Amino acid sequence: MNSSIRYFIPAILPFIILNLHISVLLGSLLITSYWAGYTAFQIPSGMLSDKFGLSLTSKLSFSMIFILFILLYFLLIIIYR
User: Please, are residues 49 and 57 in contact by the beta-carbon 8 Å criterion?
Assistant: First the structure.
């Protein structure tokens, strides 16, 4: 991820809170969970990248994210039907 994007996330927190109509506590938990997940996957993804190469690791991770977003979309359609 580009470092400039990482620095803008806390700066746009007030806009996220206003647009999602959530409390400051929930917005803070949202940012904290983002950073916890980001930090937790740095070492494993680096190890996989060293073992299998950056190109293959990036392709697999983007493919997994794409599939998970598609599944989440259909799950939300089923839940909010």
Answer: yes
The encoded tokens of residue 52 equal: 């299998």
- Given this model, what pLDDT does residue 3 score? 65
DSSP 79: H
Q: Could you tell me if 9 and 34 are in contact, meaning their C-beta atoms sit under 8 angstroms apart?
A: yes
Give the up-direction half-sphere exposure of residue 39: CA atoms within 13 A in the CB hemisphere. 6
Per residue in 66-79, pLDDT (tens digit) is 999 999 999 989 98
What whole-number distance in Å separates Cα of residue 65 and Cα of residue 63? 5
Question: What does the pLDDT read at residue 68?
Answer: 94
CA distances from 35 to 8, 51, 56, 58 (A): 13, 25, 24, 20
How many CA atoms are closer than 13 Å to the CA of 76, on its beta-carbon side?
Answer: 6
